[in-house]
């Protein structure tokens, strides 16, 4: 592409383009984004060093730690708290998928300019990683608290199932992205987040095996049963709707019963709901 052609696409004169190139004239970050679009490169690579990120206290921490104080705190869910960019990305990924989303479309949903969005996130991949980190971080906090609220493996198992169901219904949007967009993650984030997912499965595996050894669960395939249980829970975002006839708490009770039946729990010590 010649300098004249590039100038035409940017709606500037060749002289202005030359002055920008040689540092004699400044340019806005919005124009840098336009230049990146024309050249077919990532805008963050051109923006580096052009402008400092905007300092805004609202953006210093994406999400406060989940408050789990008190008995059963892992059962309580506040409205999802995401920064504007992540809200825009989440909405776009849900509607169009990761590969169908654009930074320009995400910026529009977030109420930001494209350049403003690039001040906070280098691209779609960083947005996706942030969403999945948020997803797995909260889930791990909650399941850790759920396990600590019980003294035997069969009750811990029931708590873990309840926690998984509550999370994947109250946080349906996060769970849906977690189930559908893992393939879109690049290394090394993909390996790290996959390991977090394996840790969640291993928690259910461990309690299932322990309850089998204690003679309370009678399934001859404890690990296979545990995988089936977790798969039931993580599939909830595919069908759950807030306007539906059942609450997350009702669904959680049903799924705990399904899970206890699947592992063939001894009726004499079957955990009670709540």
Automatic annotation (TrEMBL):
Residues 102-121 bind DNA. Residues 1-46 form the HTH cro/C1-type domain. It holds the Pfam family TetR_C_24. Keywords: DNA-binding. Residues 79-139 form the HTH tetR-type domain. InterPro entries: Cro/C1-type_HTH, Homeodomain-like_sf, HTH-type_TetR-like_transc_reg, HTH_TetR, KstR2_TetR_C, Lambda_DNA-bd_dom_sf, Tet_transcr_reg_TetR-rel_C_sf. GO terms for molecular function: DNA-binding transcription factor activity; transcription cis-regulatory region binding. This is AcrR family transcriptional regulator/DNA-binding XRE family transcriptional regulator. It comes from Janibacter cremeus.
């Amino acid at each position: 592409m010649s300098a004249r052609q590039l100038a035409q696409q940017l709606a500037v004169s060749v002289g202005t383009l030359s002055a920008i190139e040689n540092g004699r004239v400044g340019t806005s970050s919005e124009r840098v984004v336009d230049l990146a679009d024309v050249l077919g490169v990532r805008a963050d690579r051109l923006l580096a060093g052009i402008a400092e990120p905007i300092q805004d206290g609202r953006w210093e921490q994406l999400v406060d730690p989940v408050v789990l104080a008190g008995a059963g705190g892992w059962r309580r869910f506040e409205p999802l708290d995401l920064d504007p960019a992540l809200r825009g990305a989440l909405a776009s990924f849900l509607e169009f998928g990761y590969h169908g989303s654009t930074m320009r479309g995400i910026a529009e949903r977030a109420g930001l300019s494209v350049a403003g969005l690039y001040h906070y996130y280098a691209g779609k991949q960083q947005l996706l990683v942030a969403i999945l980190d948020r997803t797995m971080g909260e889930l791990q906090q909650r399941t850790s608290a759920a396990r600590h609220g019980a003294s035997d493996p069969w009750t811990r198992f029931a708590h873990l199932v309840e926690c998984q169901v509550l999370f994947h219904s109250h946080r349906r949007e996060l769970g849906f992205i977690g189930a559908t967009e893992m393939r879109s993650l690049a290394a090394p984030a993909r390996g790290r987040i996959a390991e977090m997912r394996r840790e969640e499965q291993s928690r259910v595996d461990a309690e299932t095996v322990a309850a089998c050894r204690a003679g309370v669960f009678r399934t001859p395939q404890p690990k296979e049963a545990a995988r089936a249980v977790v798969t039931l829970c993580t599939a909830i975002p595919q069908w759950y709707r807030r306007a539906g006839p059942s609450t997350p708490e009702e669904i959680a009770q049903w799924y705990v019963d399904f899970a206890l039946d699947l592992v063939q729990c001894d009726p004499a010590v079957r955990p009670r709901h709540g």
